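Quick start: what a row looks like.
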Amino acid sequence: MSLHRIALIVLALALAAVLFFFSHVAAAASTDDVRARIGNAGCTICHHDETEPRASGDAPPLAPSFADIARRYRGQPGAEGRLAKIVVAGADPRQRHWKDRLEFTSMGANAPRVSKAEARAYVRWILARP
């Protein structure tokens, strides 16, 4: 193998490593950005990152934690679209899918404050949580 070919291979590998690194940095930045936007939209008034422990007799949480939502819906076909629709339009109080686990019976609409695209980004971030 010629020295020129080896140099090209090394250069290609270095470029691939740099692109890989920066794609992860960009993903982390966009993840932090989405989390900040979720907070700015007011979602964290009711929803918390993790399930908070409750003492006996405590009132139930206002809304499911992001971790609870992720555990319940991650991997379900169509979950992203269904949840994004709930974020924008609100939840039907007759379909209490968190029955007896929350203080609120349904989530109110967030439109026009939260667009469909933003709602999808929020839900994607929630479902991608570990």
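That is the whole record. The mean pLDDT is 79. The helical segments are 3-40, 66-73, 79-89, 116-127.
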